[in-house]
Each structure stands twice: as structure tokens, then as C-alpha cells.
Amino acid sequence: MSKKAFRCKNIYTALLQELVDGYVVCEDDKIVFVGDETDAGAFIDDNTEVFRFDDNFLMPGFNDFHVHLITGALMEHDGVLRYANTEEEAAEMLWQKNKDRSGDRWILGGAWDNFKWPEAANPTKRSLDKYFPDTPVFLLNKECHGAWANSEALRRFDITKDTPDPEHGSFFRFEDGDPTGYVHEAAVIPLLKGILETMSPEDMASYAKSFSKTANSYGITAVGDLPLYGIRADASYKLLEERGELNIRIFFALAFMEEMEDIFKAREEYTSEKLAFIGVKDFLDGTPMGHTGFMIEPYMDMPDFRSESMIEPEFLKNRVAEMSGEDIKVRLHACGDGAVRLALDAFEYANEKHAGKDLRHCVEHIEATTPQDMERFGKLGVIASVQPDHLPKYDFEHHPFHTMIGDDRMQYSWPFKTIADAGGRLALGTDYPVTELNPMRGVFRAVTRLTDEGEPEGGFSPKERLSAHEALRAYTYGSAYAAGKDDKLGTLEPGKFADIAVFEKNILDCAANREEMFGMKTLMTIVGGKVVYKR
Length: 535
Ligand SMILES: [Zn+2]
Hints:
The protein is α/β, with parallel strands linked by helices. About 35% of the residues lie in helices and about 20% in strands.
């Protein structure tokens, strides 16, 4: 038996706001004791390995409830271009990162953000061709709704002047009809899938492994992995688990429209403590920012338009009810207030059909909603899965919501506190790679509702700010609850798995301090009693 004890003056259990000055003791993969020094003695002997973090901060590991693991991992591995200020700079950054690489493998970085570039212009293959004349390059943008390809990539997919645009997607073109290399929406999917098909589960597993290393370095011990474009990576996660190399818990969902047979198969196959199938997910709408969020009332700058649901409401209701009957958790992406209402209506219908079941369905994102609907989360037992780092991060004054949905509706954007106060449960996450994986960013944003420049004064809709305790609890216990793992994870108490993160500073004290939070050092991360990261 392996025994470890962690001494710390600031132990945050996620049960209460009050910190414990004492010890957490683990035997093998479980916690056996949390409490003060006097009582700890009975649990510590000569065979106990003792770690001292006296003045630091020890808490349950973060559980990021909304990541797109494999897509993010692919991006991260070959080059994250989030901070490039021009197209040229992005191309050069990618070259710097990949110039010494050999072999005929796709380069798949991404997270580029042309809204930061002059005139927000979409990039073209020409800038990439200069650096990568022969290697295929395919770079998803920050939202993963568009991609930037070079000529070699287009050549391999045989995309030419004569290739027609698919439904709901397009290949942007120069005046003569030649594809520019910018690929939009539905046109991205077959290309990305085609590239991933060239990879073996071993290749994918190495990406997943590098993701878990990064996640562990931020104190993350579990993630909710959501599908994107129907890409499945569970076989590669399983490979890591079989090799004993899975250092993070992955609770993954499949697509809502996946065949029932495949869903049942996944549910049967993935039931371990490290790797489990936990439900299905789909998009009800896009986002108000792209005028694709489904709104109850029209957009202010498009007075006849409120977009629409991607799933027909009657079908949605019945499918959600069917899933509920099988005890499968459903997670619906809903950014516009109309989509949020539709999701809640479908969940309400499922509740009526299956009264008494503990369903724990989720609405994802909630960029806009109404006061009436905020009240419904608690009543219906629906979880609000939210990602605070989606809140405005810079230039609040010019945030597009002011003119797209107007300040009246905007005040109800990302309404964490009202939902929680009305009895709704929150599960926090990042939506990585759409935002960064570092959980300190989300905690800071949830607590302050400020941009990086500290705007607006007092925070955006300040009544929606969470306390540091509420944010940390939602990011640990809240996510564990949403995954149906709250009996084993999410708090520090005897009997639970020893999933622990130690940080340099007391987060309850500095959650509103941007510099301290963004620069927070992780000292140690433990998953199931095993040290997986050490500074
Ligand atoms: Zn997402």
C-alpha cells in the first residue's frame, strides 16, 4: 500500500468556504483523512511519504467540464496561433515551430483569430505556401468553424476551381474561382475527418497524452470531452489507459445523433474510473456573435432575423425523452436565448415523461437568456455548463453584443449567479481550444466579470459575479456532479479519489487579482493518489 500525506495550512475541500489547516492523507488512490494535525497522527506512520506545502493552497483537482480534447491537442501540438497579430505573423510562427520537422505528416496547428488582424480578413494559402510548399497544412480557427489550408492540402483533397461548395459550407475563392485556402463551416468537416483518418490510434494517443500533460500542469485532473464534427478519439484514450499512461480522467460524450447502437456500445465499453462514457451532445444553435444564435426576438442589427434552431423542436423533444428513458445525459449547446428556452422545454418534457429520474441534462454556454428561463434550471434539475472565459476579454465598449442584441438583453448574458441562486447547479469549464485551458482565467473572469483591461468598472452585470468559493466549487464538485461522479470526485473527503491540485497562492484571496491568477504556479497535481505533475 502506498501512503501519502499532504501538509498545508490552506486546504480547500470544496465542501465549505472555510479552509482547513492540517493534512490530507491518501492510501493508494483514495483519501482516508482530511483534518487537523492532532487527528492526522493516527493516519501517518513511517511508511507515509509526507509532502509539505505549508503556506500554499491545496484543493480538489480542477474538472474542466467542457473541452474538445483531441481537436485542441492537435492544435496545441503543431502550433497555437492565438496571439498572432497578422496573417503573416501566424504563418511565420507556424514555420518556426515546425521548421525542423521531417516526414510526410500533416501540420495541424490553429486557434488563429483573424478578428485580431487588420480588417479581420480571412487568410489565404499564399502566406502558408511561402513556408510550406510541399507539406500539407490545415489550421482550424479559434472557434473551429473555419480553417486555413495551404496549396498542398487543397491538392491532396483535390479541391480546385471546379469543386462545388457543400451545403452549409464553402471554399472561399479568388476572383478567378480558384480556392483561397480559407474553408468555411460544413466544408471543414470532411477535410478534418479525412486528415484524422490518416492517423493511427497510436498517433492520436500521443496527442491525447500531450494534452493530459498540459492539463495536469494547470492542476486539472478530469475533463468532460465533447465531440466536435463527430470525430471519435475514445479508442486512443483507451490505448493510453491500457498502457497505464492515462494521467487524467476523461468523461466523454458522443454526438446526439450517433446511432443508438453505438451509444449503447460505448456505454458498455467505457465504464472505468479513468475513462467513461457519460452522455451525448449536440448544437441547438451557433452563437449570437455570428448571427447564428437562435434568439427569441430579432437581432437589433438584423431586424427581421432571429436565426433558428439547428434541430427541429418536436424531434428534439422526442429524442431527448428517448435518451432520458435510457438514462443517457443530454448536453445541448445553446447560446441564443431562444435556443436556451428550447433546450429547457425539451428537458422539461423529458422530466414529465420520466418523473422521478435523476437525469442531469445540461445546457451548454448560455450566452443569452431571460430572467424567466434562468429560474427554470433549478426547478428542472438542469445543469448550466458554463465557461466564464467566454465573457468579454478585451475592448468591452466595442463588444459586438451591444449592437447585435442590445444592452437590455446583454445584461442577461452569461448569468451565473442568478441561475445558482435559484437552485440551478453550475459546472465550469473552458471550451478549450476555443479559450485557453488554464482554469485560473475562468475563475478570475467568473469572480470579476472584467476584461483584461479591467473593464467595465465593477464588472459586466456585476450581480452575476460568483464568489471565489462558488467558482472553485462549480469547477470541481459542480463538474463532478454533472458527470454523475459526485460520489467519488469533486471534494476532498475520506472515501473519495485522491485527485488533488496544489497552487502557489491562496486562490480564495487572490481570485480577483488578474496578475496573480494568470501567473499562478501549479506546484503539484495528483490523480488517484499518483503524482502526475510536479513543479
Ligand atoms: Zn465547445
